[in-house]
Specification:
Radius of gyration: 27 Å
Number of helices: 23
Oligomer: single chain
Structural class: alpha+beta
Shape: globular
CATH architecture of one domain: 2-Layer Sandwich
Helix content: over 70%
């Protein structure tokens, strides 16, 4: 730490010596600004060092405008790295200066970026508040060009918050205005947004119409990244419409441009769709092969992003020996993930061979094989969840705790106190993730206690009241049944929290003769069951619950009326 302090002092003296002339300060600041713009996307970790130099220069000069831009640039780079809490701090610091010096154009830009960060954090309510502030500021300074983009984002947030009708109408209205003023880029952005939202709502014909309309503006597609996105969306839409040949055509184009971009993010989507196409065609061998590549790429992107964030944090806090410890921790994590992936891939490979052999021997057993596959997959998921939870708690958690203890011993002058707080929060997050992956109390104390804990956690993290009564049924259930019932309850509660806008959730289970009836009921907004029927085949949460209850030889019913809440009823034999 002393070395870092000395280097910082030397750098400060260097800047002061070189930048006594205000014009020299501005020239040096602008040179750093250019470096930040050029390297932010491709090398954000290195860019943080430019931001630190720029920040130091700005405070050396005591120029509010330079301080504002330095904080804004740092917030931008931290946002690219996904470190949103620190990014927001820098944005707020920049906004406060912009308001003080009445730099209205900068206020609008900062408000927009704050709103975008909230959107990335899925806090759509706060995101809309800041987008509306940015829009108001644009109107005040007669800058109307950016309001079209903001309107799309406000509409997207409304849809994410459940006001689908208003959000879609506002998007279409905004698109109409963009067409009237012939704002081509806003038209393209609006059509793509409408297509994506329609696809999420399973309105696939509408999604297809919007996506195909984009071809009218093909000359204005900006780059290969945009082309990749459009072709990939079309491939997924045609797959949902069961037009598999067309899906394959656009998937081939997506592969082409994703390869040119050298983008693993898009290649992940390509292999996922290709695996799905192979599966529906009965080509299980290639489906499994593509699914393995999909998992490997996904893990690779995760590790790359993880390494970038760790490097950025090290650059920010300049802790001695931290990089060495993190490198050792990362190698240990990488080894465990490799072992985990090998086991997972091996299980899928063996399962694929079994399914293929049985398929060709006797096609009449197809349905039974699907049930067998579902059961083993769910069991595999539970096993992997338990294993990952144990590794998070016993390995990663202990390593982070070791780092914390080392910092405590070195924290004589309270110089590491902010880092200790962050490490403490990280330990708590690892523990919470471990508990969410596999609740140990299910084995120790049973289903009723586990659901009571789930209810308590929901009430502590939200304003929703959750009550549960399952004490009379547990003795009639096997271990597998207990695990599956817990996952069903967990998924049902999550659905109510996400979609129902409920204030109360009631969980009950009753033993009636040789059957058990589980109900999860909320007092939320309810929905039209006809809509559910159209979406059921693509809604992963519902599909997961249905598969689990089928494995228990049970039935699943939904009772819902708009404005009067929803009741999920699961009936299964006691065994």
């Amino acid at each position: 730490m002393k070395k870092s302090t000395i280097l910082l002092a030397m750098l400060l003296c260097c800047f002061v010596g070189k930048a006594k002339d205000p014009n020299k300060i501005i020239q040096t600041f602008n040179e750093l600004d250019s470096k930040i713009r050029d390297s932010a996307e491709n090398n954000p970790v290195k860019t943080l060092e430019f931001c630190r130099q720029q920040e130091l220069l700005a405070y050396t000069s005591s120029n509010d405008s330079l301080k504002m831009h330095a904080a804004y640039n740092k917030g931008k780079v931290l946002g690219i790295l996904g470190i949103y809490d620190l990014s927001q701090e820098e944005y707020y610091k920049s906004l406060k200066i912009a308001e003080r010096i009445r730099h209205h154009a900068m206020e609008s830009e900062i408000l927009t970026d704050i709103a975008t960060n909230f959107q990335s954090l899925s806090d759509y309510k706060q995101s809309s508040i800041y987008f509306k502030k940015a829009k108001k500021k644009d109107y005040e300074i007669n800058e109307f060009a950016d309001t079209t983009q903001i309107n799309y984002e406000i509409a997207f947030n409304a849809i994410a918050l459940g006001d689908t009708a208003w959000g879609m109408e506002w998007m279409r209205h905004n698109l109409s205005i963009a067409k009237q003023v012939k704002d081509t880029q806003s038209i393209i952005f609006g059509l793509d947004n409408l297509s994506n939202v329609s696809a999420e709502m399973e309105e696939n014909q509408k999604a297809l119409a919007y996506e195909l309309e984009l071809f009218l503006y093909r000359d204005n597609w900006q780059n290969n990244l945009f082309r990749t996105g459009i072709y990939e969306h079309l491939s997924e839409i045609y797959f949902k419409l069961k037009q598999y040949d067309l899906s394959q055509i656009y998937l081939d184009s997506t592969f082409k441009y994703a390869t040119l971009l050298n983008s693993n993010d898009w290649l992940i989507e390509c292999y996922k769709v290709r695996s799905m196409l192979a599966e529906v065609r009965g080509d299980y061998k290639n489906a499994l092969k593509d699914h393995q590549v999909y998992l490997q790429l996904k893990d690779s992107v995760y590790k790359e992003n993880y390494a970038i964030k760790i490097s950025a944090m090290s650059s920010l806090y300049e802790l001695e020996n931290k990089q060495t410890r993190i490198t050792l921790l990362e190698k240990d994590n990488q080894l465990k993930r490799t072992q985990l992936n090998s086991a997972f891939v091996g299980a899928f490979f063996l399962l694929g061979i079994v399914i293929s052999a049985l398929w060709y021997r006797n096609q009449r057993q197809h349905r039974r094989l699907q049930r067998t596959f579902s059961k083993q997959l769910i069991q595999s998921q539970e096993t992997e969840r338990q294993r990952i939870a144990r590794e998070l708690h016993d390995s990663i958690g202990q390593n982070i705790l070791f780092i914390k203890n080392q910092l405590v011993r070195k924290n004589q002058n309270s110089e590491f106190t902010p880092i200790l707080e962050t490490v403490g929060q990280t330990i708590e997050e690892v523990r919470n993730i471990s508990k969410d992956l596999y609740p140990n109390q299910l084995e120790k104390y049973g289903l009723a206690a586990s659901v009571e804990t789930l209810a308590q956690n929901v009430m502590e993290s939200s304003e929703v009241f959750v009550s549960a009564d399952l004490n009379t049924v547990e003795k009639n259930l096997s271990k597998d049944a207990l695990i599956n019932l817990y996952r069903i309850i967990q998924e049902s509660v999550n659905n109510a929290l996400k979609h129902a806008q409920a204030t109360s959730i009631r969980i009950t289970a009753t033993a009636i003769h040789d059957k058990i009836e589980l109900t999860v009921q909320d007092n939320g907004k309810g929905f039209d069951k006809r809509i559910l029927a159209r979406k059921a085949q693509r809604h992963f949460g519902l599909l997961n619950m249905e598969e689990r209850i089928k494995l228990l030889l049970g039935k699943f019913e939904v009772e819902s009326v708009i404005g009067k809440g929803t009741k999920l009823i699961f009936t299964l034999p006691a065994f």
